[in-house]
Amino acid sequence: YSGPEWVANWTVWNWVWWFSWAPFAGLFLAALSKGRRIRTVVFTGVVATSAAAIVWFLLFGGTALHVQHLGQANILGTIGEWGGSEAVAAFPILSALPLSQLMIFVFLALIVVFISTSADTSTLIVAILASRPGVAPTRWAIGFWGVFQGGVAIAVLLVGGASSLQSLAVFTGGPFAVLTVVAMVGLSRTLYREEGGNKSLIRVVLDKVPTISGTLDSQSLREQE
To answer: Which is nearest to 195 in space by CA: 39, 34, 42?
Structure first.
């Protein structure tokens, strides 16, 4: 990569794509997390998922480098045959592993599950947002928005392929990025207003440190006497 293509494709576009997913994914997680502590939600949504992603990239990325270096799989050649799409890179990697057919089947099944759950989540959230406050969306409404989203995705892919999909993600992700920043500021102000008088776990521990130190000093003095 000699120009700005890498930064544009893997940094700017990925972040904008994330922001386009953030609203309905955040609302869905908020609905699932009702009644749970904030630190539990943050740990599960940030720490646990980040750790799982790190393990995945370490194992799968290391395996890809290993089989490519030993000549057991021609990953770069496969990507070139399919027009430079990295989406096909998993197949030569899995083909070089034991039980390759089973691994490919599981991989495809996971892709189907991911797409199905993502589409179901986005459809449900859009139907909720389109309904009146406090009224659950009907099955017809959920079905309509599911068909509508699928039609939009098919139309975009037929018109311009993946490049049009990227452009649409940039177009929708930019405004959502601004709204996300506003939501973060609002959440911070709300937490400060409602929980400002409560001590954090770190503050509670730090407040106990002088007491523990004083108790130990008193015990040591009595032992010396």
So the answer is: 39
User: CA angle, 87 as apex, 3 and 157 as ends, to 5°?
Assistant: 85
Kind and range of the H or E run holding 166:
helix 139-195
The predicted model scores a pTM of 0.64
Tokens 């521990």, residue located? 205
How far apart are the C-alpha atoms of 119 and 111, rounded to whole Å?
12
CA distance 146 to 213: 62
pLDDT digits (tens, 9 = 90+) for 101-138: 998 999 899 988 988 888 888 888 888 888 887 778 88
Q: What is the pLDDT of residues 143-166, one digit of tens each?
A: 898 898 888 878 877 877 666 777
Largest CA distance in the chain: 89
Residue 167: count other Cβ atoms within 10 Å of its Cβ.
13
**How many C-alpha atoms does 75 have within 13 Å on its Cβ side?**
19
Give me 27's structure tokens: 């609302």
